[in-house]
Amino acid sequence: MREVRASAPGKVNLTLRVGAPTPDGYHPLVAVFEALNLRETVTVRTSKAPGVRVETIAYLSDGSVDEATTRAMADVDPATHLAVRAARVLQRLAAAGPWASTAAGLSIRVDKRVPVAGGMAGGSADAAAALVACNELWELGLSGEQLQAIGRSLGADVPACLAGGIALGTGRGDHMSVLREVDEAGAQHHWVMLLAHEGLSTPDVFREFDRLDAAGAPALAEPTPEEVAALCAGPEELCHCLVNDLQAPALRLRPELAETIRAAADAGALAVTLSGSGPTVAALARDAEHAQGLASALSDVPTVARAIPTCGPACGARIESTEAI
Ligand code: C5P
To answer: Which residues catalyse the reaction (predicted)?
Structure first.
């Protein structure tokens, strides 16, 4: 029996430009993602019992178990859990390989630190980590490109969680090119992620975008080299670049998010933006100390459920350990 542990990052959108929907209902996107130091850990283990079992444990920032989210995750239909869906795709490939005899049974444990339904790609990070872990477990030898293609079929944010760093997504936001790898010397971006009391459905926010944008969205342009340089530079330059076309529709669905945004600006954030389709609001700080200060100042705001300081860019999905058990 073997056990492999992998991790993958949640994300914040530095930019998110949305075009008019195509006939399949999806929207063309030009999005710049930054992987964050909030990571999901997925541990996969071959098991004698056939089938795929999953257990999810969610944590708060202080490392204690988030009982409410853990209970809610226990009720999620495994068929819709992205880690399970990812594992099943690779399980089918493994059934034809040298590990065929051990491919029938798999147990998955997800240690969750990225908030659920927050616009931070927590579910997609589960899928990304599960893909990398199962690729190693069954020695499938799938390339980064092949994992990207499988990731894309599971969800539009999975490729960004695989890639990490600062990456541009085009198409449905799922065709990635890395703009900046993670390097020790590069500028860090410090954030406070301001969680709402209740999640927001991504399809609902896109539908509201369509309603607001009935006249048709403008043509999408990729960022210019100057814009890319600013997105990858320090916070003083980044703060002028943050933009999210889903912010207006998300605010229509959740007017109280305006209070969170205003409170973050009043508290001295360099810039404030919605993360993905929300409802998490991301406040950009000058440095780690400023982020800590913003988090304590904003945790008492009534519309904020939790304020989590974090930073980016972080590395993409990667193996943490492999063990024979
Ligand atoms: O791909 P994923 O399952 O993460 O997308 C969730 C939903 O978000 C889709 O069902 C669709 O309604 C919306 N979406 C979209 N255009 C995109 C990405 C997502 O309309 N490029």
So the answer is: 11, 157
Q: Supply the residue whose CA is at minimum distance from atom 14 of ligand 1.
A: 26
Known binding-site residues for ATP equal 115-125
φ, ψ for residue 184 (rounded to 5)? -55, -40
- Residue 11 catalytic? yes
**C-alpha 203 to ligand 1 mean position (Å):** 6
| Tens-digit pLDDT string for the chain (325 aa) | 889 999 999 999 999 999 999 899 899 999 999 999 999 999 999 988 888 999 999 999 899 999 999 999 999 999 999 999 999 999 999 988 777 777 889 999 999 999 987 899 999 999 999 999 999 999 999 999 999 999 999 999 999 999 999 999 999 999 999 999 998 777 799 999 999 999 899 999 999 999 987 556 677 899 999 999 999 999 999 999 999 999 999 999 999 999 999 999 999 999 999 999 999 999 999 999 999 999 999 999 999 999 999 999 999 999 999 999 8
User: 70, 66, 16: which is closest to 305 by C-alpha?
Assistant: 66
What's the whole-model pTM score?
0.95
Per the residue annotation, which of 126, 157, 174, 213 is the catalytic one? 157
Q: Say which of 11, 111, 112, 245 is annotated catalytic.
A: 11
Delineate the domains of the chain, giving CATH numbers in brackets: 2-184 (3.30.230.10), 189-312 (3.30.70.890)
Instruction: Specify the DSSP element, H or E, that contains 4.
Output: strand 2-18
The protein residue whose alpha carbon is closest to atom 4 in ligand 1 is 155
Burial profile 228-267: b = 16 or more Cβ within 10 angstroms, e = fewer: bebbbeebeebbebbebbbbebbbebbeebeebbebbeeb
**Residue 180, ligand 1, Cβ within 6 A:** no
Retrieve residue 279's tokens. 């409802």
Q: How buried is residue 144: exposed, middle or buried, by Cβ count under 10 Å (0-12/13-18/19+)?
A: middle
